[in-house]
Amino acid sequence: MAKMSSPTETEQCIDFPEADVSRSVLDRGVITALSKTEFLIFMNTELAAFTKNQKDPGILHCMMEKLDLNSDGQLDFQEFLNLTGGMATACHDSFTRSTHS
To answer: How far apart are CA 62 and CA 67, in angstroms?
Structure first.
C-alpha cells in the first residue's frame, strides 16, 4: 500500500473553511436550503459582528434578495456559497489593503 503524502499547499487551499461552514449549516439532517428566517437567525448568531456593525437595518433583507438567485425565498447550497465566498473575498481584500498601508 502506498504511503499517503501530506496535502500540497494548493490542495490545502482547495479545502477552504467556507465550504466547511456551508456544509455544517446546510447539511444537518434534512436541511437543504435556508429560509429567510433561518438566514436571518444565522446572520444574527454566527456573523453577529458583521450584523451589529451595519447602519442599514434592512441590509440582511437586501442581502437575502441578492443571494437568492432563483427567487424561491431560500438559499440553497450554491447561493449560500456565494455569501461565504463573498465574505472571504472581502476579508482578503481588507487584509491586503492593511498590509500595503
So the answer is: 9
Q: What is the mean pLDDT of residues 34-55?
A: 87
Is residue 75 helix, strand or coil? Answer: strand
Average the pLDDT over 73-96 and give the result.
85
Query: What are the DSSP calls for 42-74, one per residue?
Result: HHHHHTHHHHHT-S-TTHHHHHHHHH-TT-SSE
Whether residue 15 is predicted with pLDDT greater than 60 in this model: the reply is no
If one compares 48 and 73, the residue with the highest pLDDT of the two is 73
Is 42 a domain residue?
yes
Domain that holds residue 61: 33-100
d(CA 42, CA 97): 28
Measure the CA–CA gap between 90 and 95, rounded to whole angstroms: 9
